[in-house]
Amino acid sequence: MPACIVLGAQWGDEGKGKMTDYLAEKAGVVVRYQGGNNAGHTVEVGDKQYKLHLIPSGILYKNKLNVIGNGVVLDPKALFEEMGYLKELGVEITPNNLVISDRTQLIMPYHKILDGIKERARGKKDIGTTGKGIGPCYTDKMERSGIRVCDLMHKEVFAEKLRDNIEDKNNIINKIYGEEELNFDAIYNEYMGYAQKMKPFVKETSVIVYDKIKEGEEVLFEGAQGTLLDIDYGTYPYVTSSNTIAGGVCIGAGIGPTMITNAVGIAKAYTTRVGKGPFPTELSDETGEWIREKGHEYGVTTGRARRCGWLDLVILKTAARVSGLTSFAVTKIDTLAGLEKLKVCVGYKFGDKAIDYVPASLEDLAKCEPIYEEFNGWDESIENARSYEELPENAKVYLKKIEEFTNTKVSIVSVGPKRDQTMKISHI
Ligand code: GDP
Ligand code: IMO
Ligand code: MG
């Protein structure tokens, strides 16, 4: 697997952090290519738990290179807080194990303010964003007024871009929404402090990643969020503002599609979602509550309770298609032990038709009724299983159904949060 993508196949929180850490053992480089600190990736090693937001999950190994690619939106305050948090847990971060693209867009204080203002203005139609300034920062990138890491490295350039942005943003923040005006000096001084600290980490990362792949080093691309939060293929507008699917890697890391060899979709054995938006297999009953409590389904970034529901194979099939997945890694199958019957969505009833794709229009999606197939559950707890043979027969039937419906093999099964609670059952 010289260049392998690890991406979310559902609505995020599938266990990408855990699987990236697991696969990183054999890799030399781990690259984040989109999103920002809206992500919350949990990695458990030994008796320690690490919550990562912006820094790639390869950081827990010594001597791996971690890359924050150009497609990421970077909040320097959050970056240095995360570095401090990791340092306290004994993880040292230096330019030898972390590099940051000079093309990466910076999240500025006004992006976070605007995220809040926009959400409040949407009222009942709010998206339920993480409030980290992600949408407004990507908006500025596309509008071509964003400030990049390379700008921060040049005082005068940064000052000029900041001045222009403050003038523009104050028109919205102060004149339209009546909130307090932004202060140039305060932001300038704060960011100049970050500039100093960030400088040794800043590199042309596209060249580094390209060279590493050419040298035969194994490179992992760690996705954030998930397929149905993708700006193009997700449940728009209830999505994040980046391309979370495999295509996002080429843009966000600066490599060509022909260099990518594998794409593993991380799929939770059931479905969860945080924030607003449609969710056809959502369980708003005690089974949903049972899954939430057993699976500890509470957000890593915002602490919000995650909505829970049955496994939706229409979503996994979509993920396999739009990202060209070479396999799935199925996580949290241990959580389902104890349920007598399990339902799996194998299509949507849409009018008098049955469809196996997610319609673009939310109005159409709202009319879709999940078509369920029922499976027998298993009682045996499986967190100690370390091989496919040790899994209960009914769990094997469940996994086979995923493979059959999506026409994509399951290469890895995860039965707990820890690194060793993982079994590789075929080539990724
Ligand atoms: P990510 O955003 O995709 O990295 O996922 P999160 O870290 O937000 O959420 C996944 C949660 O499930 C974390 O608390 C993980 O420690 C945990 N986890 C991952 N894989 C498994 C698994 O196979 N079984 C159980 N029980 N927990 C898991
Ligand atoms: P990881 O990487 C789950 C959701 C938010 C909201 C929508 C838009 O841990 O899987 P944003 O702040 O990005 O503008 O919010 O996207 N969201 C996530 N949901 N996991 C995540 O990341 C998410 N990052 C954003 O809840 O619905
Ligand atoms: Mg998460």
UniProtKB/TrEMBL annotation:
Q: How is the cofactor bound?
A: Binds 1 Mg(2+) ion per subunit.
Query: Which NCBIfam families does this UniProt record tie to the protein?
Result: PRK01117.1 (NF002223), purA (TIGR00184)
Residues binding Mg(2+) are D13, G40
Q: Which organism is it from?
A: Clostridium liquoris
Q: Name one GO molecular function term.
A: adenylosuccinate synthase activity
Q: Please tell me where this protein is predominantly located.
A: cytoplasm
User: Per UniProt, which keywords does this protein have?
Assistant: Cytoplasm, GTP-binding, Ligase, Magnesium, Metal-binding, Nucleotide-binding, Purine biosynthesis
**Location(s), subcellular:** Cytoplasm
Describe the reaction catalysed, as an equation: IMP + L-aspartate + GTP = N(6)-(1,2-dicarboxyethyl)-AMP + GDP + phosphate + 2 H(+)
Q: Its domain of life?
A: Bacteria
Q: Which residues form the active site?
A: D13, H41, K141
Matches recorded under Gene3D superfamilies: Adenylosuccinate Synthetase, subunit A, domain 1, Adenylosuccinate Synthetase, subunit A, domain 2, Adenylosuccinate Synthetase, subunit A, domain 3
InterPro entries, A to Z? Adenylosuccin_syn_GTP-bd, Adenylosuccin_syn_Lys_AS, Adenylosuccinate_synth_dom1, Adenylosuccinate_synth_dom2, Adenylosuccinate_synth_dom3, Adenylosuccinate_synthetase, P-loop_NTPase
| Pfam families noted in UniProt | Adenylsucc_synt
Q: Where does IMP bind?
A: D13, E14, G15, K16, N38, A39, G40, H41, T130, R144, Q225, T240, R304
| Function, in words | Plays an important role in the de novo pathway of purine nucleotide biosynthesis. Catalyzes the first committed step in the biosynthesis of AMP from IMP.
- Alphabetized HAMAP family for the sequence: Adenylosucc_synth (MF_00011)
Q: In which pathway does it act?
A: Purine metabolism; AMP biosynthesis via de novo pathway; AMP from IMP: step 1/2
Q: Which residues bind substrate?
A: V300, T301, T302, G303, R304, A305, R306
The question of whether Endoplasmic reticulum is a record keyword is answered with no
What does the record note on quaternary structure? Answer: Homodimer.
Where, by residue number, does GTP bind? 12-18, 40-42, 306, 332-334, 414-416
Its protein name is: Adenylosuccinate synthetase
Family, according to the entry, reads as follows: Belongs to the adenylosuccinate synthetase family.
Q: Name one GO cellular component term.
A: cytoplasm
Q: What biological-process GO terms show up in the record?
A: 'de novo' AMP biosynthetic process; IMP metabolic process
